[in-house]
Amino acid sequence: MVIRDPVCGMPLEPESAPYTAEVRGGIYYFSSKLCRDTFLEGARIAYFSMEIGIESGIPTYSGGLGVLAGDVIKSSADLLLPMVAVTLVNRRGYVRQQLTPAGEQIDLPDEWNPAEHLRELPERVTVRIEERDVAVRAWLHDYWSPVGGLVPVLFLDTDLEENAPEDRGITDYLYGGDQEYKLKQSIVLGIGGVRMLEAVGFRISKYHINESHSSLLTLELLKHRDMDEEKVRTRCIFTTHTPVQVAFETFPREMSVPLLRSEIPPVLMDRYVETDGLSLTTLAFDLSKFVNGVSPAHKNYSQQLFPGFHIRAVTNGVHPHTWTSRPFRSLFDQYIPGWAHEPELLVRVDEIPHEDIRHAHQRAKQILIEYISRVTNVEMDDGVLTIGFARRAAAYKRATLIFSDLDKIREINRRGAFQLVFAGKAHPADQVGKQEIRQIHEYIRQLDGDVKVVYLENYSMDMAAIMTAGSDVWLNTPLPPYEASGTSGMKAALNGAINFSVLDGWWIEGWIEGTTGWAIGPGPDEQISDDERRRRELQDLYSKLQYLIIPTYYHKTDEWATIMRSSIAKIAYYFNTHRMMRRYASEAYL
Ligand SMILES: *Cc1c(COP(=O)(O)O)cnc(C)c1O
């Protein structure tokens, strides 16, 4: 058996490894004393995220934010960055979606058993919530990169016998419950997380706050005797993912103070809980030196919302190996060895013949079509242009936009056939999102016999991988400026699927019209009314589909393959978490 040194990545035989360490319930092997010492005592970046999506079997994510966090962990492990991640165990997951034939979403708990996937650590820490002690334990997932490199991930859990029944449930549901429940989760994550890292023996150089849920960690750091605001700031990095004011939650003062009183001293409470309440975002801004948005456009919106702060842009990415389908992995391995570790090499994709690209994509498309046939009774055709759309069913994502004119859709389809594949869960409390899913099911019924459309149940990371790779065109129609970055289109690009998207988030940077894909609607700098925007979006959607996309797909197959290749060469080489983590490392962590 060959294993790896988690610090330098060197392959080793366990029997002959010169150094070992037995910690956190595992045995680790090292090629040198320096590696072992670094592993045991070296400082790490602590990456805090309310949701983390590493694999479908650990359902502690709801969408792009969590999947990004998982990709951060994977790229950090590949790049041998010293990181440890912290999240909540969410024993009942986010939500398991069941759909009735009419598209009614039934919300089920997505229960999973941490003991089947993770190692329980013996350490216990306590946080005080209201006037009660809440004991917290941690479950450990060692994420190993295939090329060596290890990122430990701690899943915090309050489901312990010694806790009051209501506190045992604090780490049950991702984004579940009322405001009070959410604030309690933030206390466990931010304050409990810092304590747990210390208890387990991790030495932390920087704290990366991935969205503001964990920002109470700043106040926990501030309580340490030798700390002051400036010192806390130099240790904290804040990545905001939200582009609009209304999305920044404020916890009312009369609710926050009683919950936090036992943990946060009155001077800090007065300074950081405003009269109108506690904003975890403002707290993160105030106490982080490095603050960034997730695309240049998002940085600009954030700058308008938070004038006076220096905000930077680090555009999101996706983990190359995770989001590349098997057919493309083999193809890249053959022509571009080393691509998964150095995705910049994908600029050389022009060396791969069109025929091979088409063939790999056709395989990925068949995998999608077989999947659809297995989980629904719909048989799709691998010779027909396939358009995919999948993401959280949130109103701003506008999943129903393409159905605005059903007659037009029928007419386009008569001239050149296409089929549509949808998926996405609504948050259990999001009535608008649920209504959209029902609406799409109604459109599916109305288009029956004319245009084939399916809606796949219970969207997950596995399904995202199959859909983004198997679609010919990846559709995205968010309402600007709500899509701070978006990442599913980057997954599509890695697999030669072509983006057809509204100019928002990362697509503003990735888009070269007709070269890397196509835009829907006006550019980001045009000031136009909502009605005018919608009119132009629909015009682009339908006319580009009819006069550009469909004819190119069916009649100019070489041109189509060239765009697929550009999608890889000009998007995938850059929009990945390897590039992103190298930037965080050089600009924020060092
Ligand atoms: C990548 C991914 C997302 C993000 O998709 P966007 O289109 O960027 O919102 C959401 N959910 C899952 C399961 C994903 O894999």
Automatic annotation (TrEMBL):
It comes from Methanoculleus oceani. The modification N6-(pyridoxal phosphate)lysine is found at K491. The lineage of its organism: Archaea, Methanobacteriati, Methanobacteriota, Stenosarchaea group, Methanomicrobia. Its cofactor is pyridoxal 5'-phosphate. Residues 5-43 form the TRASH domain. Its EC number is 2.4.1.1. SUPFAM superfamilies: UDP-Glycosyltransferase/glycogen phosphorylase (SSF53756). It comes from the Archaea. InterPro entries: Agluc_phsphrylas, Glyco_trans_35, Glycogen/Maltodextrin_Phosph, Pyridoxal_P_attach_site, TRASH_dom. It is an enzyme of class 2 (transferase). This is glycogen phosphorylase. Belongs to the glycogen phosphorylase family. Pfam families: Phosphorylase. One of its GO terms (molecular function) is 1,4-alpha-oligoglucan phosphorylase activity. The keyword Ligase does not apply. Keywords: Carbohydrate metabolism, Glycosyltransferase, Pyridoxal phosphate, Transferase.
